[in-house]
Amino acid sequence: MGIGQSAEIIAVGSELLLGEILNSNAQFLAHELAALGIPHHFQSVVGDNQSRIHSVLETAIARANLLIFTGGLGPTPDDLTLAAIAEFFNVPLVEHPDIWADIQAKFAQRQIIPSENNRKQAFLPEGAQPLPNPIGSAPGILWAVSDSITVITFPGVPRELRRMWEETAVPYLRQQGWCQGPLYRRILRFWGITESALAEKVQDLLYLSNPTVAPYASRGVIRLRLAAQANSPAEAEAIIGPVEQEIRQRCGLDYFGRDDQTLATVVGDLLRSQGQTLSVAESCSGGGIGYRLTSTSGSSDYFLGGVIAYHNAIKIHQLGVSPVTLAQEGAVSAEVAKQMAQGIQQRFQTDWGVSMTGIAGPTGGTATKPVGLIYIGIAAPSGQVSTYEFRGSAQRGREWIRDISISSALDYLRRTMMIQSPELIQREILPGGRNNGN
Fold this sequence. Notes:
alpha/beta, six-stranded mixed beta sheet
């Protein structure tokens, strides 16, 4: 592979353009190309139309040397990928009897007789090497069209593509010299800070070339991707490690984890490391905090259970919330959140108690207590009880409010635990938002 060459992923399928299915194949291939050190600057999606596939090809060969197609290899008339590629490069489609025999054998195992339409899958562009499909009927191709252009095709079925990629395509790419030094990546995760605020804190680091540092956000979690070109994991760590440490020092408690860690797994690790337990009392979240915590195997080590106290009667009889407080302050209030947290902590005899009460909408809001107002309570082992007031956007909808408030509850617990146990952090940073204290 020469300097400056790169790959382009081309996904074929009208169902992708219509939004009927998620383009998970492009995500998988993008990740794999980065891991192999193959530059990849563009992706394209095109419908099942031969002239449009030609148009995409015209653009792609002007800016990439390795063209990776997914989709359009099936037996139906709208599966046009190979025919379009062959016509574009002005070569005929040639039947491979061994592929047709393989298709027939696979159908026979299922006691099905293939139709003539299936025979179409045995025709490949002249000069192309078959890319075997061990679990499906549609093979792909490995085709060095010229010294400067290589084409690889895969079916659109993700499990078929992944098997074909790992077993045949990757060894082919290595053999052909496409794979350079791999790209090692680390994802740093943040909560309680906006993407713009985080970018300000690390602005000078965003201009590094190795490792590169890039921010991106999704559902409240802000991420920084650190990527290093290196010849070994040890070399990558030497490049990434110092930058990661600098970022963590600058961002303090806004940083909560890296790579696959979530707020729930981080909270679980903290509880386990301290030998502590947790219970939850939930109203508007409807059990969402407990669901997040129990999504991790082994969470029974630290999570004992909870109460979904949706009705005021449950708050009173199961959690010991004062009827007077409910009447005077309302169910959505800091005081009720405190009493719920205390109540669940005492009822379940846990070190920590977490509560949530609020208005997820779209109805139920008032001028003083709008949709999106959430109170989170924390009862600590020390006996201290505090609340956090979260105000979500009513325009984002009920599920968004619930989802973000659940994450905020886990984050508030994480911060509170770390502040109350200074040995867990190098420095103490108070949680963001309005802290109502005792």
